[in-house]
Fold:
Amino acid sequence: MSNKVTKAIFPVAGLGTRFLPATKAIPKEVLPLVDRPLIQYAIDEARAAGIREFIFVTSRGKSALEDYFDLAPELERALEDKGKTDLLGEVRKANMDSGQIAYVRQTEALGLGHAVWCARRLIGPDEPVAVLLPDDVISAETPCLEQMMDSYADTGGCMVATMEVPREQVSAYGVLDVAEDMGRLVKARGMVEKPKVNPPSNLAVIGRYILPPTVFTTLNAGQKGAGGEIQLTDAIAREIDEGRDVYGYRFEGRRFDCGSKSGFLKATVAFGLARPDLGPDFAEFLRDTVNYMPAPGE
Structure:
């Protein structure tokens, strides 16, 4: 099996119900975080990590997502004619070479494991593959997947991004049972999806994965787990059961859950403040707003 990861899967078939009514008209993945759609942050992270082929698992109503990555010659020409080179460069960041991007349909919402399985025919039998969940936006000096790739080059196996979460939030995540803690890297003896009682740790799995091809063998069985869905966590846990290595990687950076309204707002504030062209004015506005607002209960 090759240790080089050049393909990535982006599961984007969800309905985005937490953002209705906006997502009645547009896919959640193209909602703007400051001035770029969520999906662009995931694409930029994947490119920085050396990904060259991009596989989107979509569903009905996602045509705007597909159009976003198409060329826009009229727009580019208009920007060029007006000398707006900075904007032209930003627009061209979304462009994909012919054949670099592929779309497959998930016709039923049967879980993350099922969404990944839908891309199986585009992954070679000996190829590892990355999976990125665009809802998880990570602000980091070195992009999260690139950090993982550097570590994966030494370990191989299966690798998931991890972070400590408060104990009261553990039931919302897949959680690692840690066999060996090596600092940034941990070796797992097991994984549990959304444990309700007695979680093995508070080390949660978030939306970045590097998967060996053997994971697809498990997903082929179509076995349902928590919530009656085909769970990617269960397929990764099977890797451990069969004696193959699974690692968690504590990434450096700050993760925002942009699948929730609260997380999306927090990300907007953080990314807005980090922008040199927006930050100073935005910070002043936030200070004035916080000072103006009455304390709770007043």
Observations:
- The chain has ten helices and 13 strands.
